[in-house]
Design goal:
2 helices, alpha+beta, 17% helix
Length: 92
Amino acid sequence: MTVQSAHSNAGPTPHEGAETKLADICTPGAYVCEETGGLLRVSEKDVARGNLPSPVGATGEALCATKICDDPYITLTRARMVASNLDLEVTF
């Protein structure tokens, strides 16, 4: 998944296991895209620069993601384990 346009949103901070729309992501962390199962890493620099994931998919629908960790640099093994514990299907 590519990162694109800036988003400025002062909404509530998603906690681990919380599903949120990509457009509403405003905190660093690791997220699993609900539609693709891909791992999205959003760092503090990404948030500061507004380099957040594109909020719409190829079909034009708003995409959702589940936050799996506050650390965007979580290892893939750990990310798979956390996603499995949350019953998320992954493709990474």
